[in-house]
Amino acid sequence: MKDLLKRLDAHYPEVREPKLPFRRFKHETVLSLIDTLKNNEFFKIEEIARSIEGRPIQSITIGSGNIRILVWTQMHGNESTATRAVFDFLNFCNSELLTADYSEWFNQVCMCFVPVLNPDGLERYQRRNALNIDPNRDAARRSTPEIRALFSLLESFKPDWCFNMHDQRNLFNVGGTKEPATLSFLSPSTADGKRNQNQSDAMMMIDKLNQALQDFIPNKIGRFTHEFYPTASGDNIQSLGYRTILVESGGHVKDVEREVARKMNFMLLWKAIELTASGNWSKGTALRYSEIPKNDQKLFDLLIRNVGIERNNQVVFADIGIDRVEIPASLPEGFVVKSSIREIGDLSHYYGYDEVSADGAVVNVELNLNEVADFTLKNNNETFMKVVNGFVVHG
Ligand SMILES: [Zn+2]
Fold first, then answer.
1. I need a surface site. Which of 60, 66, 173, 294 has the fewest CB within 10 A?
2. CATH of domain 4-296
3. What's this model's pTM, rounded to 2 decimal places?
4. 192-219 per-position pLDDT tens digit
């Protein structure tokens, strides 16, 4: 379809799920959204397992084609961007926007979604499951019900393509640049370290996805490196011979709720359908995949350059790298942010989503690492700038 992504971009506000405005939500919202699909026979809904605390883990399958695509999200309970995008995608399919040129693809493609593989983690908004086990380190032993559900679905659904959807921390930038990695990709490694055909195929698919999405987030897509994690799900699933693509949603300037990455996930899912149905994924190359810049970890939420730090009648000049840590709170978005200093020193080769210069103004308190703190910078005893709850407030 010509200009597929432009059309999707234009229609996105109509399908963006309004009940998921924030990254933090409860599992009952997910269940109620799945319920609304039940009276449309286009969607086949199944309970595939229960979590440790008995929460249903459901799959939603659409299409009748031979090309089988499996998408799971939120294996880590606090990584919700792709879950929100999946419901945007399902809204599109549940609307009059699903015209013949889109729905024809579902004669070729069968797509199975598991939104929220780790509902107990979602309920607590934590990475791990209710037993504090990281499901993404249980893929070799397969002891947790969440990971067992995923692997039995692999056996029954037999996907041609797997999309393993996560979120990464804000600190990831596109290597060698100040740009945040709003999306990152990886074709995970296999246990024997030899690149098998499905790993190469996943690289080719990623190359095509990257090319398509660069139009919307230019230079904001990175790539993870190929270390093999013996207990991680992507690596194990790739080793079993399923083409596996890891997608990590990341930060963007002035986008606390990751709406940019969310929309990119929505577009990526459609692009994957187009590429598999047309076979055009095979026009991607592993070489171009390897040219996607590697991720680096050089971003702070707030970077204040050239701060004066006074001690024993001497002044040392340093940059201060600050993270905005989220403290749970009874607010619609579910948290407030506080300043936490991650680094003090020469941060010339680091970047900030927000960057300011203190012009040598002197800080009023002792700075400690990894502590929640606000502070004031003074110039000749006049307040030059205040840092309050992770943001600069000018004095
Ligand atoms: Zn994750």
1. 66
2. 3.40.630.10
3. 0.97
4. 888 899 999 999 999 999 999 999 999 9
